[in-house]
Amino acid sequence: MKKEEQLQNTINNISILNDLLSEKLCLLDAKTMDIPKNDEITKLFNAVILLSEKIDDEIQTVTGGDD
């Protein structure tokens, strides 16, 4: 049972960090709206969004989609 609790805690922590990542990305996007975005910045934003989505998918897979 202890390993299951550790796994659940890890999943919860990753989920919280992923939510914070998404929140910070939104804030950063809002702050940089007036700055013309070059290709590198756009690629960085897209990479972070994809990473966040992949983390969500992995959490759903591990938890069986009941999150």
From TrEMBL:
<protein>
    <submittedName>
        <fullName>Uncharacterized protein</fullName>
    </submittedName>
</protein>
